[in-house]
């Protein structure tokens, strides 16, 4: 197995965020685990401003539930920080609007990436946005 870096982990998080079904999530997780990458995904939705804290919490909970991270302060903080970074990238498009989509989380050794994929709704004029955050923690 070759060494993987932040680009490969980010790619895995993005693919998880773009997965269309639970079956596809499961297939992707099995594919990534063969490469040594742990991954998780979770849905989210609602008013963007009201959802920021909920999205961050859901990311941390999903990462712990799927054993992507350990239940230690540094790992939880890394996922929360990467999620906030990803959210800050989509904020200009999503502020004041309803959003729905998926969060993808991936980890390989000391690399953790979180991708958020949104459909941003305004009447019938849907927009899409994706944000990505990365943190390094001791493995």
Give a written overview of the molecule.
- Homohexamer.
- InterPro entries: Regulatory_HutP, Regulatory_HutP_sf.
- Antiterminator that binds to cis-acting regulatory sequences on the mRNA in the presence of histidine, thereby suppressing transcription termination and activating the hut operon for histidine utilization.
- The chain is an alpha+beta fold and 139 residues long.
- It has one domain: Hut operon regulatory protein HutP (Hut operon positive regulatory protein HutP, 3-Layer(aba) Sandwich), CATH 3.40.1510.10.
- Helix content is 47%, strand content 30%.
- The protein is built from four helices and four strands; from the N terminus they run ααβααβββ.
- Strands 1-2-3-4 form a four-stranded antiparallel beta sheet, sandwiched between helices.
- Helix 3 runs antiparallel to helix 4.
- It is globular, with a radius of gyration of 14 Å.
The oligomeric state of the chains shown is: single chain
Helicity level: 40-55%
State the shape: globular
Number of helices: 4
- Which strand-content bin applies to the residues? 25-35%
Task: Give the N-to-C terminal Cα separation.
Answer: 17 Å
CATH topology: Hut operon positive regulatory protein HutP
CATH class: Alpha Beta
Overall strand count: 4
Q: Unreliable stretches, pLDDT < 50, 5 or more residues? A: none
Structural class: alpha+beta
Strand order of the largest sheet: 1-2-3-4
